[in-house]
Amino acid sequence: MIADDHPAVVAGIRHSILSEGIEIVGEAHNSTEIVALLKEIECDVLVTDYAMPGGEFGDGLALFAFLTRNYPSLKIITVTMMDNPGVLRSLCNSGVQCVLNKADDVSHLVPAIHVAHSGGRYFSPKVNAAIGRGGDEKAGDAGDKPRANKKVDLSKRELEVIRLYLSGMKVMEIADYMHRSAKTVSAQKVKAMQKIGAASDVELLQYAFETGLLSSSESAADGLSDEA
């Protein structure tokens, strides 16, 4: 199965897969469609984008956690532009079999599908490079991490900015996606981090995991206000 919220990307992946004789059992554009298809058909491998906002079951780590719990035999390959070492490490430990960077050659896709189907793991060159350059930085490091039990009241806009940022999108990309100025998006990110008490992206990621911000779509909806 192929899943991406951009039809052109789906078409490109479809062409690469079909040319190698691999059967495509379905195509989806968000998590709602993915789950609907999985309820109706048997699927061995899911090739999906990391960031697909708007679906009932979330996207990124939230979606992968849901799929791993409810469809344990499904092999997951995620294709992404993210290069945040902390997020990538967490992704590699989340039950996802293969992680491919969209900037890497498309020739990595078919081998990744075969490896995932056989139960192995595959990371494209830029993913390996991003993880490697992260040094000793870990999302789980102790010390000056934010307190998970701290009550934080994020607005819907702040939560969406943080969620998209942790999915690997840059401020300018988030601004384009949300049809807002980069200055506004940057200010919302800074304000959210101040509320959380996160002084770095690693601390922000730590908080997100400890509070369930990235582990379930329900958790993401908790503790946020209606203000922009």
From TrEMBL:
PROSITE patterns reported in the protein's UniProt record: HTH_LUXR_2 (PS50043), RESPONSE_REGULATORY (PS50110)
Domain HTH luxR-type span(s) in chain numbering: 147-212
Highest taxon of the lineage: Bacteria
InterPro entries: CheY-like_superfamily, NreC/VraR/RcsB-like_REC, Sig_transdc_resp-reg_C-effctor, Sig_transdc_resp-reg_receiver, Tscrpt_reg_LuxR_C, WalR-like
GO MF terms, alphabetically ordered: DNA binding
Gene Ontology BP annotations: phosphorelay signal transduction system; regulation of DNA-templated transcription
Alphabetically ordered keywords of this record: DNA-binding, Phosphoprotein
Domain Response regulatory: 1-117
Keyword match Protein biosynthesis: no
UniProt keyword Phosphoprotein, yes or no: yes
Residue numbers carrying 4-aspartylphosphate: 49
CDD domains: LuxR_C_like, REC_NarL-like
Protein name as it appears in the record: LuxR family transcriptional regulator
Species for this entry: Burkholderia diffusa
